[in-house]
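Tokens in:
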């Protein structure tokens, strides 16, 4: 387990850029992203997720996997609870320590050692972006021999990190 004080800014920023760019400012639910997902679906696009880091933390820490109304309702309630009780830094810390990065690897520190053979604080920005690139579907997107899609996602994440303002963006947490 890695404490929030020891998380490199590049890793935190890469995950926020990839998963939840409004994380510092929302209350656990990104209503803009939910609306965007619904609008895209209504226009014939595939239904995509709009879960925030806070929602994913609630789900991964306390609930079972799957898509049903009971789990989603409990996830919403738990999200409100953790947003009330924990700081954004704490939520991000927990998320990064329990997130799945490959079929059998959980937590950013273990993943750093397994796939890059180095401690998390020694990761380069490109490696941090690769970590974040697999988060939407670590069963499909692989860190070991990353596909062109994973590499493209990592490049997009690096650009988003710069657009967010780099490490200064994390001061909002």
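Residues out:
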């Amino acid at each position: 387990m890695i404490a929030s004080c020891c998380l490199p800014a590049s890793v935190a920023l890469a995950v926020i850029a990839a998963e939840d760019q409004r994380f510092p400012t929302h209350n656990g639910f990104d209503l803009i992203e939910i609306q965007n997902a619904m609008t895209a679906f209504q226009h014939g696009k595939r239904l995509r997720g709009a879960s925030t880091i806070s929602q994913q933390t609630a789900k991964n820490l306390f609930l079972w996997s799957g898509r049903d109304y009971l789990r989603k309702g409990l996830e919403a309630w738990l999200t409100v609870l953790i947003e009330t009780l924990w700081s954004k830094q704490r939520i991000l810390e927990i998320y990064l320590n329990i997130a799945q990065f490959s079929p059998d690897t959980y937590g950013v520190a273990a993943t750093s050692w397994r796939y890059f053979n180095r401690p998390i604080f020694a990761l380069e920005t490109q490696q941090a972006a690769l970590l974040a690139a697999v988060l939407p579907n670590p069963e499909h997107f692989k860190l070991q021999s990353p596909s062109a899609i994973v590499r493209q996602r990592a490049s997009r994440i690096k650009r988003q990190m710069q657009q967010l303002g780099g490490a200064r963006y994390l001061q909002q947490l």
